[in-house]
Amino acid sequence: MDSLKVLFRSVFGPRLFQVFAVGTSQAQQQIYQPNGAERMGDNLLWCFSVTYGIVYYCWPVLLPYLYRRGSLEPSNIISILSNFQYALYAVALGYGLRGIGRLSNTEYREMLRVLDEALADLGNSSKQEALRRYDISLEQVPVSFQAKRTSFSPPPSDSVPYRLVRSVASPYATIKSMLASVLGRPMMYPGSTGLLNRQLAPTLMFQRHHMVTQQQGERRTIGAVDGNKIDTMFFDRRSEPVNGDVLVIACDGNAAFYEVGATVVCQGSGFSVLGWNHPGFGASTGCPLPSQEQNAVEAVYQYATEKLGFNPDKILLYSWSIGAYTASYLAQNHPDIAGVIMDATFDDVVPLATIRMPSSIGWFVESVVKSNLHLNNAERINRYDGPLTVVRRSADEMMMTDEKVASNRGNFLFMAVFRRRFPNLMCVATEEYFAQLLAQPLPDMGVAATGASLHQVEDLLKREVRQRGPKVPSLIGEGMSDTEKVGVAAHIASKMLRHYKSSHCVALPATFIEQPWSLSFHL
After folding, report:
1. The pTM is what?
2. What is the pLDDT of residues 278-333, one digit of tens each?
3. Residue 258: how many CA atoms within 13 Å on its side-chain side?
4. Which pLDDT belongs to residue 333?
5. Are the C-beta atoms of 43 and 168 separated by less than 8 Å?
6. What is the Cα gyration radius of the chain?
7. Is the dihedral of CA 290, 293, 297, 303 positive or negative?
8. Quick check: 22 pLDDT over 90?
9. What is the DSSP letter of 278?
10. Out of 41, 79, 279, 346, which could bridge 409 as a Cys pair, Cβ 3.0 to 4.6 Å?
């Protein structure tokens, strides 16, 4: 490489975090140590990034304030722009110091050499494997798998041309989109903010190192159809005699990462596990807007089936909290998967968003969310007819809209699913049973609570399934008495709905990660 190219690559090359000690007896974490020049340059660029972030996120408040003060007069604007040059000088100095520091660091230069060799020879597995020893930011890393566009891939609604056309066609929609991006998205997905990523960086680095070096995790970069690069971690347990031939794809919450979230929960289940980070989380690129979330999880699914070789009927989805959106999207488009587990989640994000904002602007918040950040889990999972488990936490402060357990949005999710799947079991008596059941933190589940006989209810259900089949929406319940409907509904609910005594952020025990129940089990 000539000196100019090396300097350019040093300035704009990927960040190096650590080196994985794979294949050696040395398991100690080898963190990259930038020299003084690189550290100073990074700090300058971080300060600029923070300042930019503050201005970006606060402009809806700052702009009216400056206007009332008269600070937006032409003369003042010219003065502000003239002073802006000093910020550009600081950015240029930051990049310069970073480049000089990296150029004089032999470890960073070696990483660049390995990266360039891998980029120049994408088909060489040994060169790709050599690059994987380095924990670096993913912008320039070659992908291990590139997803293909499908018939249900979302339109490129986040692209610049699309936004320009929309801004001309509908200024009001543009304002709502800007507010969703500036305020709504960071509140809904705090894991995508630079502040949280920087705060958790040491923990995430340590966990990645532990996963790769001690747990034989396979870290790969997956390309989504929108150009985002998704960071994944795969734990292959297919050589183990129990459960290893089934893959669990873990879909994390709004401030969780595969390094410390749902993926860790699933590891104790004995299944093979594939974890991934939302766009904008950790090393994944992009931003967690609905269309990018859909593209990301579809890329992960294609990677699991086409590259890792798992059949759809050997794939389970475990989702925690907001991760249920991507799981329900995947389930509706791939109905032949083995099942879905939805833990500590909601039916629709709108009630949770409006309750946390002043009631006077509730109508506007609802409009903004529905237009740009509408996570409609119940609507999507109701397009999936396969095995499903809903896990409700007894004291889930994030999913409750008031102090009563009955307000837990997981209740509404379960009822939306149950009503669609078993419409003929619903009657006044059944509605009353569920109202009492779901108002309790840890209800007494099962047929016994209704006074019916478990043996009789199971026989009745088996007879109904054999006669009417396991297809949903089910005809089960036609011709039954109200007492029989309540008994059968209670039995099915005990299979589909599980309760765990905890608040929202407590890790779910691995024993909950199991094959969800289905009507076909009674054939």
Report:
1. 0.91
2. 999 999 999 999 999 999 999 999 999 999 999 999 999 999 999 999 999 999 99
3. 31
4. 97
5. no
6. 26
7. positive
8. no
9. P
10. 346
How does DSSP classify residue 509? P
Backbone angles phi, psi at 511, to 5 degrees: -65, -20
**Which has the minimum average pLDDT: 152-166, 352-366, 375-389?**
152-166
Closest CA to 258 of 290, 302, 224, 211: 211
The 10 Å CB-count burial string (b at 16+, else e) for 283-304 is bbbbbbbbbbbbbbbbbbbbbb
Structure tokens given for 92? 């240029």
Bridge partners of 392? 499
Beta pairing, strands 134-136 & 16-19: antiparallel
The rounded mean pLDDT for the chain is 89
Q: Output the pLDDT for position 157.
A: 58
- Residue 15 confidence (pLDDT) above 70: yes
Give the integer Cα–Cα distance in Å for 405 and 439. Answer: 5
Measuring CA to CA, which residue among 395, 399, 484, 472 is closest to residue 433?
484
DSSP designation for 517: P
What does the alpha-carbon distance between residue 25 and residue 117 come to, in Å, rounded to a whole number? 26
Which of 149-158, 219-228, 282-291, 503-512 has the lowest average pLDDT? 149-158
Residue appearing with tokens 């003060």 = 69
Instruction: Please report where in the chains the tokens 């459960």 appear, as a residue.
Output: 243
How far is 422 from 474, CA to CA, in rounded Å?
5
Q: Identify whether the C-beta of residue 261 lies closer than 8 Å to the C-beta of residue 267.
A: no
Residue 284 near residue 227, CB atoms below 8 Å: no
How crowded is residue 359: how many other Cβ atoms within 10 Å of its Cβ?
9
Contact status, residue 154 vs residue 290, Cβ threshold 8 Å? yes
Rounded to whole angstroms, the Cα distance separating 271 from 318 reads 12
